[in-house]
User: Which sequence fits this backbone?
């Protein structure tokens, strides 16, 4: 049973999700309304987009705590481009480019210095935060035209665009991760860096690619964010959305130790947290308690990770 | 001094402390040209006053990191303690007892962290990320998202008092640093923190009570967060569920700028204090110098990465020597 769960990490996350949905369907009146289920997915779309990138980084045995600042940086850069040009491609291009460059900075520092990724990205968290504040110049962005940020605004055949964007990202990243050498190298690196080096995995290239991807995905997430809210508030810059992103990856079943996880983990984890926060609010628990439930979810998730770990001893 | 011996000195603990003092001196020099108000004794004392809260937490964080762990929940513990203080007092508990409750709740939060880390053998990054959220939820839930500010005037003593012109919290900060330094370097429990952080297995095999020490470091971190919260709550004279937001990252930055490896096994409480001051001077100097505050984040980030890179210099020199070779080895986690 243990090894089954260790090999099929998605199963336990899906089981948790099903149990939660059934629980709230019974005890929270109105939870299963299609509009509520759709709202849950929409609310978690930004976190989930970022979590897809974080999942890659964590699979590779690293961590990126700067992604929240990257979201703010890309968002403000793209927001101003959207306001001045109104062009879809210019806006999305800016967001992805800014995110990718931020990821490149992280990747280069991590690949070419012996500084652990948590320290590097903690430093760039502050650095990017400062640049985002400079760009924002204490102005909120309001009134962005929906057409420029269509990835997060509007809907197609009754499905909100932010959910479609998330689905497309999930499929593309999943296919690329499974079918390219980079994807396999990434997991090998996270699982056992020593062995990966011996086997000739181009560690630096793999790391840099991964951090660029995580940054670019945070860039896309910023477009979804603007699309949903119609603008950017400077309060986003100090937001600790990054903690929710890491939590989503862990709750979804990817091991923080790297090398063990699934492509669906970020989505499953984000949806689980969305289901819980929506469910308890419907049950009448004041929203201020949500972080408590959220934290308990995360602790249970990592505890599950501990008890489903396969018997093979890990090289530290 | 030859190049080699210079490098050796720069890498030693004393060398790094001198480096931080030089950094502070450079900051003083730069900022005093930017603002006439900066280089006054009262302003410098004010910097220590405003940074004592972060400084106390950074001391606890230094011990946790030295043991090979990390504590992301400290900012949320500040909120829990602050809310417990306000909630107790506003529900008729005497002020003195409310304060005891507040500090004790910080300690309790720390013990919960340590117990989870030890019992479940979970990664401390995730455990304390989970408790960060849980504690924050408790603080916001109890306070119902509102602040409490009806404290009596006597409560001012903890965050706004001065002794011979020196802010009370500055004295507390220095005393705690000194006592902790004694404990870490002169007691078995303290020295075993370093040993456990360096290599847990030999520490366990040689009979050290690894689990007790581990719970102890998180308890200490929680206790100091509770004390820090008391100072904060008194200084702003209100109890808030959103207190201490983001403090954990600032504290980790201070420990890392102080030259300790994030992988554990190293500690210098003096350098942690100096690093907290160096970081605190940046925001103070930028504000007084009229520089856009955005730049202070960039400066802190650059300072942090720059100093860590310098700290890891020998490894970097090795890496450069085999530039085309494989990436430097990294510990996991």
Assistant:
């Amino acid at each position: 049973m243990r090894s089954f769960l260790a090999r099929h990490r998605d199963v336990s996350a899906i089981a948790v999700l099903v149990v939660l949905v059934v629980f709230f369907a019974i005890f929270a009146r109105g939870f299963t309304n299609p509009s509520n289920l759709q709202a849950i997915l929409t609310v978690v779309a930004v976190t989930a987009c970022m979590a897809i990138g974080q999942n890659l980084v964590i699979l590779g045995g690293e961590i990126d705590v700067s992604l929240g600042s990257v979201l703010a940086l890309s968002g403000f850069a793209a927001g101003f481009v959207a306001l001045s040009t109104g062009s879809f491609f210019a806006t999305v291009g800016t967001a992805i480019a800014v995110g990718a460059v931020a990821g490149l900075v992280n990747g280069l520092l991590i690949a070419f210095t012996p500084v652990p990724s948590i320290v590097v990205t903690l430093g760039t968290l502050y650095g990017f935060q400062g640049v985002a504040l400079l760009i924002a110049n204490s102005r909120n962005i309001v009134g962005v035209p929906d057409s420029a940020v269509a990835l997060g605004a509007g809907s197609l055949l009754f499905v909100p665009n932010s959910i479609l964007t998330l689905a497309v990202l999930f499929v593309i990243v999943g296919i690329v991760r499974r079918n390219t050498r980079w994807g396999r190298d990434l997991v090998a690196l996270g699982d056992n860096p020593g062995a990966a080096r011996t086997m000739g995995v181009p560690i630096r290239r793999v790391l840099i690619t991964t951090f660029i991807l995580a940054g670019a995905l945070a860039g896309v997430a910023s477009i979804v964010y603007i699309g949903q809210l119609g603008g950017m508030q400077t309060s986003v810059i100090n937001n600790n959305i990054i903690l929710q992103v890491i939590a989503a990856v862990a709750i979804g079943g990817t091991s923080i130790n790297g090398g063990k996880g699934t492509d669906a983990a970020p989505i499953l984890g984000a949806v689980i947290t969305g289901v819980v926060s929506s469910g308890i609010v419907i049950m009448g628990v004041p929203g201020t308690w949500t972080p408590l439930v959220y934290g308990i979810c995360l602790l249970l998730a990592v505890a599950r990770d501990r008890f489903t770990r396969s018997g093979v001893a890990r090289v530290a | 001094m030859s190049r080699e011996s210079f490098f050796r000195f720069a890498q030693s603990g004393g060398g790094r402390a001198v480096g931080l003092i030089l950094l502070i001196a450079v900051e003083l020099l730069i900022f005093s040209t930017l603002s006439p108000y900066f280089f006054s004794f009262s302003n410098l004392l004010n910097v220590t006053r405003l940074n004592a809260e972060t400084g106390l937490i950074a001391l606890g964080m230094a011990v946790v990191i030295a043991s090979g762990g990390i504590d992301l929940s400290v900012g949320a513990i500040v909120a829990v303690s602050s809310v417990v203080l306000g909630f107790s007092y506003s529900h008729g508990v005497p002020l003195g007892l409310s304060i005891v409750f507040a500090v004790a709740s910080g300690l309790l939060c720390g013990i919960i962290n340590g117990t989870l880390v030890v019992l479940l053998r979970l990664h401390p990054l995730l455990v304390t990320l989970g408790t960060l959220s849980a504690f924050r939820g408790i603080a916001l839930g109890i306070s119902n998202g509102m602040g409490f500010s009806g404290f009596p005037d006597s409560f001012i003593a903890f965050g706004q008092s001065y002794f011979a012109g020196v802010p009370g919290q500055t004295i507390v900060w220095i005393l705690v640093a000194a006592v902790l330094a004694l404990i870490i370097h002169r007691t078995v429990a303290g020295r075993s923190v370093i040993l456990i952080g360096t290599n847990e297995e030999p520490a366990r095999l040689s009979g050290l009570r690894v689990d007790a020490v581990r719970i102890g470091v998180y308890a200490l971190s929680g206790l100091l967060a509770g004390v820090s919260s008391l100072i904060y709550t008194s200084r702003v004279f209100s109890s808030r569920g959103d207190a201490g937001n983001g403090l954990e990252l600032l504290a980790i930055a201070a420990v890392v700028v102080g030259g300790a490896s994030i992988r554990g096994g190293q500690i210098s409480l003096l350098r942690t204090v100096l690093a907290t001051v160096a970081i605190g001077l940046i925001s103070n100097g930028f504000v007084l110098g009229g520089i856009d505050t955005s730049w202070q984040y960039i400066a802190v980030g650059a300072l942090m990465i720059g100093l860590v890179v310098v700290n890891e210099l020998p490894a970097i020199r090795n890496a450069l020597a085999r530039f085309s070779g494989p990436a430097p080895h990294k510990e996991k986690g």
